[in-house]
Amino acid sequence: MYEQIRYHVADGVATVTLDRQDKLNAWTRKMEEEVTSAIQDAVADDSVRAIVLTGAGRGFCAGADMSLLSEVSQTGLTSRHQNVSGNSGLPDNQRQHSWLLTVPKPVIAAINGPSVGLGFVIPLYCDFRIAAQSAVFNVIFSRRGLIAEYGIAWILPRLIGLPRAIDLIFTSRKFDAAEALQMGLVTRVLPDAGFLEAVQGFARELGESVSPRSLRVMKQQLYGAQSQTLDQAMDVAIAEMLASLECEDFKEGVAHFVEKRQPRFSGR
Questions:
Q1: pLDDT tens digits, 83-138
Q2: What residue spans of 6-56 are helical by DSSP H?
Q3: DSSP at 263
Q4: What stretches of the chain show up as alpha helix (H) in DSSP?
Q5: What is the pTM of this model?
Q6: Which of 159, 219, 202 is nearest to 54 (CA)?
Q7: β-sheet bridge partners, residue 52
Q8: Is CATH 3.90.226.10 correct for 5-208?
Q9: What angle, 0 to 180 degrees and rounded to 10, lies between the N-to-C axes of helices 162-171 and 152-160?
């Protein structure tokens, strides 16, 4: 079904694996189409509670495929490259890559190796970023004569602060997983051995222990609040709290606590 990715579902976790190992999983239009399709499948699958995005082999993603960049550098933008253009007319959270913020299930970037350029940007739009000890990171754009692409100038300062974002974006310096953890870019660093299995275990536990409905609504709240006033965020919270009191997951949340058993959330 897929040519440049692998898609697998087990124990409530959908794993999307970038699979161009000989190219360090460099990003192509075909890969983008397939990743989008796979995540849409995961959203539509009620058995899936969390989504893991990772890379095959020794890399996460080395950025945009150089054949695309070479062609654009020689011929300029043409209709074939129209999806490179930012003039999409779509809302902010439905544009290229930023649409990941609207996925109603938690998306976890399992960064197993080099995360460079576009391969650096995509995890920023995931809800969790977990790195293997051997992972390395590089924004790279300034060393290619490019700019802060795909909204990185908006999201990176929100994740690590403006001074650190300026450092990484201006210098395009390489840094390792330990520094990524120290600056808050990733939430945890795990050993290389058994890395993907450990991330999938975290995703499985997340899916089993908390309400899918709660996660869905809280994700909307958190990202929506980035463009709201405090009053607006409070109004949303009040409305959503009243709605949650009527839902099945709230009733189950109380019941499993009182009955001292594992929850059986329906997501409704």
A1: 444 444 444 556 678 899 999 999 999 999 999 999 999 999 999 999 999 999 99
A2: 29-44
A3: -
A4: 29-44, 66-75, 118-124, 152-160, 162-171, 177-183, 195-209, 212-224, 230-244, 248-258
A5: 0.88
A6: 202
A7: 15, 108
A8: yes
A9: 130
